[in-house]
Design brief:
The protein is an alpha/beta fold. It has helices at residues 9-18, 70-73, 84-91, 99-119, 123-129, 147-158, 160-163, 166-185, 222-234, 262-265, 274-279, 331-340; strands at residues 33-35, 43-45, 47-51, 79-83, 137-141, 192-196, 200-205, 239-245, 248-254, 269-271, 293-296, 322-326, 345-348. The protein contains 12 helices and 13 strands. The strands form 4 sheets. Strands 5-6-7-9-8 form a 5-stranded antiparallel beta sheet, with helices on one face. A 4-stranded parallel beta sheet has the order 10-11-12-13, with helices on one face. A two-stranded antiparallel ribbon has the order 1-2. The longest helix is centred in the first third of the chain and has 21 residues, at 99-119. It binds zinc ion.
Length: 349
């Protein structure tokens, strides 16, 4: 008798149906079932239910988790639906395709097929409306040998190209590679850690104090090119913030789903109520290591909520660059912010 905790046929059917019969590999979405010429009642399938955690231990077992019971290992929760090509791929690389990565791909694939089913949209449209989250991943670069591949694969596996958009994803990849090289070669740091969370990418390096803005003074460098491209083209979409924390530089790249998420990304941030905005904020405390200030604007404010001339406002004397973050702002309000604070940046969510 086999000691493999294989999926039963009903379980395979559940896994396939929950994915709408579409491959869950990010960006594939191939249809895996259709009518067959063999007979009037036959169908052909090019899909497979892959184990997220392997069905049995052993040399070739991928992602085997001894803490699972056989029932848990055979449960639909432990399966992801893939086309043959991608099923074979994930079964050959346990190091790259971790359990947490595959669990996220399954969730993303099921969400996409549900949107296609419920809203009658195609795969590409479903991608645009699916929650914009990333699959978590952590990597550490300690020497410069294959940083392109390590960073490139980690970003792909996070599905950033699908949820944040391909052009932005490619631009972030360029920046991460250049930043890592710069930290190890010029910053004299021993390592660079890159942490991918659901809404942000954090780069930590233990080299000399460095802010990516300094790339601008390194004429002709790859770092300057990549940083300028990323910040010029996508400054309305993403937030990049850098702080020296202890003996490390910490840079965070984030695409906010809600303005308030900025507080999770950097403590160089404050929130204004309508009255604070209108009558002027007298005081706020941010850490002296902050090189910039992020200000979450109040919700639903309009023209007469803008400060009158002569209102004492600490924001107007702020030396650090200010980035305002607002939600559902009208063109009128956007124009008034630009007039009032001409040097500021504005991110609209
Ligand atoms: Zn596929």
């Amino acid at each position: 008798m086999s000691n493999r905790d294989n999926f039963s046929q009903p379980t395979k059917d559940i896994i396939a149906k929950r994915a709408g019969g579409l491959c869950c590999f990010p960006g594939c979405g191939s249809i895996t079932v259709s009518a067959s010429d063999e007979s009037d009642i036959s169908s052909s399938s090019t899909g497979m239910a892959c184990h997220i955690s392997s069905a049995s231990p052993g040399k070739n077992a991928k992602r085997y988790d001894s803490t699972l019971t056989p029932d848990e290992r055979m449960h639909p929760n432990n399966g992801i639906w893939m086309c043959y090509k991608h099923g074979k791929l994930i079964d050959t690389d346990e190091v790259r395709f971790e359990t947490s990565t595959l669990k996220y791909w399954k969730e993303l694939g099921e969400n996409i097929s549900r949107l296609m089913h419920e809203k009658g949209v195609d795969y590409t449209t479903a991608l645009k409306i699916v929650p914009k989250q990333l699959a978590e991943n952590n990597l550490k670069i300690e020497n410069l040998q294959n940083e392109n591949q390590i960073i490139g694969e980690a970003l792909f596996d996070s599905c950033i190209h699908l949820t944040w958009g391909e052009k932005l994803a490619n631009s972030i990849r360029d920046f991460l590679i250049e930043h890592s090289r710069n930290s190890i070669i010029h910053g004299k740091g021993g390592s660079v850690e890159i942490k991918i969370d659901y809404n942000k990418i954090t780069i930590l390096d233990n080299g000399n104090e460095f802010h990516p803005k300094e790339f601008a003074s390194i004429e002709g460098s790859g770092g300057k090119m990549a940083y300028s491209y990323l910040t010029d083209l996508f400054k309305k979409d993403i937030i990049i913030t850098t702080q020296r924390i202890g003996d490390k530089n910490r840079t965070v790249i984030s695409k906010l789903n809600q303005p308030e998420e900025i507080f999770d990304i950097t403590d160089c941030s404050i929130e204004l109520s309508i009255s604070e905005f209108k009558w002027g904020i007298q005081d706020y405390e941010i850490h002296e290591s902050c090189q910039e200030l992020f200000v979450v604007l109040p919700k639903y404010f309009t023209a007469s909520d803008f400060p009158r001339n002569g209102v004492v406002n600490k924001l107007e004397n702020e030396k650090r660059p200010i980035t305002f973050i607002g939600e559902n702002l009208s063109d009128m309000v956007i124009g008034m912010i630009k007039d009032k604070y001409p040097k500021s940046e504005l991110i609209i969510i």
